[in-house]
């Protein structure tokens, strides 16, 4: 997942899609692309994946801020806010990455008001759950250049319907829900299941337990 997010960051900052399209048209067009170094990455949801992403982003010399339930510090993150600091993260970030679970509190979190609080040059990257974003509001924000663009890996309906304006809005890049795929995913999941079965039989605490009250 963090590597796919890094790919999205480079795609947004370096206009890689435009370069590929220029090749198709045999068009020689040089670009002066911006740097990731010195930019602010805001991570909404500094869990295990968010913490690993923060480490990799720090290696790119990015400033990292974000939100986490409880607000406990995270290595390589300059400032950690509680969930009530979401607006602060949105307003400071050049790139906002969503890594939140889908819960009653987070569904529809990114809507017109939240998008209006972002910088005009900012990008939204959603690698969490599709229902965190009000898709019509996002399409409108990108179409009107309220924000610079978005890279989306998840959607409220999948596969994304052909009628969705997300497909055709300039500045929005669609990933077909590949962020969490891994060549050894089935093997890793099976290993976790077997280990938890052993722990269950032995009366030991299970790994990666879902908190039903929190919803994840």
Give the topology, please.
Layout (H helix, E strand, L loop, with lengths): L1 H13 L1 H9 L15 E5 L3 H12 L3 E5 L11 E3 L4 H7 L2 E4 L13 H5 L6 E4 L8 H9 L5 E4 L19 E3 L10 H18 L14
Give your account of this protein's structure.
With 216 residues, the chain is an alpha/beta fold. It folds into 2 domains: 2-181, NAD(P)-binding Rossmann-like Domain (Rossmann fold), CATH 3.40.50; 183-216. It is 34% helix and 13% strand. The chain has helices spanning 2-14, 16-24, 48-59, 86-92, 112-116, 135-143, 185-202, and strands spanning 40-44, 63-67, 79-81, 95-98, 123-126, 149-152, 172-174. The chain has a 7-stranded parallel sheet with strand order 3-2-1-4-5-6-7, sandwiched between helices. Helix 1 (2-14) packs across helix 3 (48-59). The two termini are 18 Å apart. The model has no long low-confidence stretch (mean pLDDT 97).
Note the main sheet. Answer: 7 strands, parallel
CATH third-level topology of the largest domain: Rossmann fold
Number of domains: 2
Give me the number of helical elements.
7
Number of strands: 7
The name of the CATH superfamily of the largest domain reads NAD(P)-binding Rossmann-like Domain
Class from secondary-structure proportions = alpha/beta
Could you spell the SSE succession in H and E letters? HHEHEEHEHEHEEH
Write a brief caption for the model.
With 216 residues, the protein is of the alpha/beta class.
Q: Which descriptors apply to this entry?
A:
7 strands, 216 residues, 2 domains, 7 helices, alpha/beta, Rossmann fold, seven-stranded parallel β-sheet
